[in-house]
Amino acid sequence: MKAITTIAVMAMLMASVMGEDELDDVSGGVYDSGSAVFSGGKGLAITQHGLLVEDGILTLTPKGTIARCGDVYYGNGQITTKSNFLFYGSQGVKVQDGNYYAGKSGSTYIFSNNEEE
């Protein structure tokens, strides 16, 4: 029983850490966020085009909902696939370099309070 509890707690901790990167991927590589995104962690990001709220595999945007299934993001009339640092799909291609995302559909830099100083 103790092992099951430990595994469950570790899974919850990993899910909370992994969620922040997923929201950065949505706001930088998938959603048209504008040139700057302010990510405060905890599933919230302020973009040039409105607030993004992450809830599990769903990200709520001012234009609708974006869902995630593995490395594929879909919603708002688009589909995007992530492969390492490359995002490609119906809206073009974007490349990720750290907190900077650039491509045909524009470039975005994510300012995050989670960065080490």
Q: How much beta, percentage-wise? A: over 45%
Q: How many strands in all?
A: 11
Integer average pLDDT? 83
Report the biggest beta sheet as strand number plus sense, adding barrel if it closes: 11 strands, mixed, barrel
Q: Label the structural class.
A: alpha+beta
Morphology? globular
Radius of gyration: 15 Å
Output the number of helix runs.
Answer: 1
* Low-pLDDT residue spans: 7-19
How are the strands of the biggest sheet laid out side by side?
A: 1-2-3-4-5-6-7-8-9-10-11
In whole angstroms, how far apart are the ends? Answer: 40 Å
H/E element order: HEEEEEEEEEEE
Helix content: 10-25%
**What multimeric state do the chains show?**
single chain
Would you mind describing this structure in some detail?
The chain is α+β, with helices and mostly antiparallel strands and 117 residues long. Helices cover 25% and strands 49% of the residues. The protein is built from 1 helix and 11 strands; from the N terminus they run αβββββββββββ. Strands 1-2-3-4-5-6-7-8-9-10-11 form an 11-stranded mixed beta barrel. The longest helix is centred in the N-terminal third of the chain and has 29 residues. The relative contact order is 0.17.
